[in-house]
Structure formats: C-alpha cells, structure tokens
Amino acid sequence: MAKHPVVVYGASGYTGMLIMDWLIDQNIPFTAVARNAARTKEMMAQRVVRLESANYEIIEAEHSVDSLVNAFRGAKVVCATVGPFFNFGQVAVEAALKAGCHYLDTTGEQHYIRQVREQFGELYRQAGLVVSPSNAYMYSFAEIAAELALETPGVDALETATLARGPRGAGAGVSVGSTATIFGGYRQEACYLWEKELVSHDKHASFSIASPDFLQPVFALPWGGTSLPVYFQHDPRVRSCISCVGFYDNNAMQMVHGLGQKWDAEYAHLPPEQQEAVLKQLVDSVTPSMPPRERTSLHRTVDFAIGRGQLAAVRATVHGITPYIATGALQAAGAIKLIDGDFAKAGFASGSKAFGHRYLLGFLEQRGLARATISQL
C-alpha cells in the first residue's frame, strides 16, 4: 500500500526516473513501484537528481492487476511508464481504477489510447477519476499548439507536426521503451480524423514537411497516427485532424520507414511469437541500453499546428528542448492538479482538456522548456 500521494510505476526506467526528478523538484512525496526493488534503488541512486532530499518509498510489485492494486492503494495519482503500452498498459489502468487513483501515462500509441477510451473512460468518469494517457512530450506539445490554434474563431481543421532533433543515427537518444513502441507500432492501425471519423492511413504513408523553422524539408511519418485524432474525435470544434512526426535526421526516419515496408513484406504473416522475436531483435540492435541524460544544447523540438476554417487560418508553434525531461515536467504538472482535485473533467481526457493547455504551457515556459508563438495566416 502506498503511503504517498503519487505513484511512479516503472520507476527504474528512463522516463520514470525523470518523473521522480520533477516530483522532487516540486516537493511531492512519491512511491516508486517496480518489479525489482533492489535494482530500482540502485538505478535511482545513479540517475535521479536530488534524491537525497526526496520523501519517497520503493514498493516491489508484479505486473498483475491484483499486485498493482495493492501497491497503488492509498495514493491519489498513478504515473505509469511501463511500455509498450499496447502490451502492458491496460493492467495498470485497471489497477489504478480499482485502487481509486487517477491515472496518467506517457504513451503515444493511438491503438492503445482508443482501447483505454472505450474500455475505461466511462468507468473512470463514474468513479470521479481522470484517466489521461499521452501526458508526454509526444503529444502534449502538439496538442498545446492545436489548442492555441483553436483559440482563433472559425478554425475546425487541424494539421500538426512533431519534429525533434537529438544525436544523429537511428535510435540515438531514444529510450529502450520508446524504440520498442516505434517498432511494435508496425502491427497497429494508424488513423487520422476526417469529418469526425477515424480513417486509416495508408500503410506506407509519409510526409515532406516544409517549415520556416528549417532550411530543408523534414521527412515525417504518421507514427501510429498519434493521440491527437482520438482526443479531438468528439470535440465539437474539430472536423479533421492529421498529425505526423519527423526527426531532423532524415536518414534515420527513412530507415524506420524502410523497416515498416520490410515488416509488411517479410514479417506481417508470421505467428505472434515469431513477430515478438523479430521486434526484440530490432530493438536490441537499435537501442541496446539506456541513453544518457538529454542535453539542452542538443535536444530541440518544434511542434506546430496549422488551423483552418472556411476563411480562418492560423499557425501555432511550440519550440522546446529535452523532450524526455519535458515529459517528466508534464507528469508532475498533471499530478499537482490531480492531488488538489483541480481538473476540468473526470473520465477519459487529454492533459490539455483535463488541466488546461494554458496551464501546461505556462508550467513548461516557467521552467525554460518551451515557448509558444501564434501567427495568423
């Protein structure tokens, strides 16, 4: 049973430890939950900043609903980072509900987010709790940009891009969990929103993003569809939403695109257990170990939304740095609101809809992680 208001589930992982950094920064006591308490204690001592000043505990738990209910009970908020979420996420969502906790996670996996909405959204609403996947750099920054664009009257169609720069090379600066999610997404449907309906992307869809932020076009992919079409599907303001993701290293993105084509040609027909073996081999070859902490001089991001209406046209841009560190900040920002009971709606909700996009943007801006600009087109 947790004795602190926030649980970090997946505490020994790269993102989990960054969330703990920010909880410590905000003086929020927390319970770290992981499968191996000894390993978690060792990893936290190596990587969590200001751990000596933290008020925390470590609980060991198996990845099962009953075990996690026992670990979560007593807390108010669960921050989950155990992915790929399409493999592991729903266990934590169900456990948080049964333990009476709000739920935040860091996923960007559209297929999983749709499952959470359909299976748990109403149950959380009835319980007066928030279930909010995708409280992370991907795709909170793009959603903030989209919400800023929607402040212009008449806008009802959105196109968003999430563009990031880090170390060059496939997998460089990407966590092991993120790599597993990227490659695991080959097996999932990716959708965009068109006239209020989710429509499947072509399996090999790609984009060439010409932005005033860059000299050359950026090669981008649907990246599983992103969370935004799901979050805007039932928003009365929005008729369509198409989103994509690109990295400044076009060669790395072309490699990912090529692997997706190779998957369809050679692996899509294999039994699930053989597919899992192929995915593990891909992940191990691209991201064999946890990456180093991000550098503000190297890890930079640009997320923008172009909003259109019949005559209205606007572009909202959020420039940022260190996306994984920013993810930890977003989780802490959400936890603060949930601990205080200060949220806009119970049930299934994005971070912007639950806590307010201006609140999240302000939290990031005040800590030097983002800045926003809006221009009429």
Observed structural traits:
7-stranded mixed β-sheet, 377 residues, Dihydrodipicolinate Reductase, domain 2, Rossmann fold, alpha/beta, single chain
List the helices and strands and how they pair.
Blueprint (H helix, E strand, L loop, with lengths): L5 E4 L4 H12 L4 E5 L2 H11 L8 E5 L4 H8 L4 E4 L4 H15 L2 E4 L4 H18 L2 E3 L4 H14 L6 E9 L10 H9 L6 E4 L2 E4 L6 E3 L8 E4 L6 H5 L7 E8 L2 H18 L4 H15 L13 E9 L4 E9 L1 H17 L7 E2 L2 H5 L1 H10 L3 E7 L1
Parallel strand pairs: 1-2, 1-4, 2-3, 4-5, 5-6, 6-15, 7-12
Antiparallel strand pairs: 7-13, 8-9, 10-11, 11-12, 13-14, 14-16
Helix pairs in contact: 1-11, 3-4, 4-5, 6-13, 7-10
Provide a quick synopsis of the model:
The protein has 13 helices and 16 strands. The protein is an alpha/beta fold.
What does this entry look like structurally?
- The structure is a single chain.
- The strands form 3 sheets. The chain has a 7-stranded parallel beta sheet with strand order 3-2-1-4-5-6-15, with helices on both faces. A 7-stranded mixed beta sheet has the order 10-11-12-7-13-14-16. It has a two-stranded antiparallel ribbon with strand order 8-9.
- By secondary structure, the chain is of the alpha/beta class.
- The protein has 2 domains: 6-136 and 325-361, Rossmann fold; 137-323, Dihydrodipicolinate Reductase, domain 2 (2-Layer Sandwich).
- The chain has helices at residues 14-25, 37-47, 65-72, 85-99, 110-127, 137-150, 176-184, 228-232, 250-267, 272-286, 323-339, 351-355, 357-366, and strands at 6-9, 30-34, 56-60, 77-80, 102-105, 130-132, 157-165, 191-194, 197-200, 207-209, 218-221, 240-247, 300-308, 313-321, 347-348, 370-376.
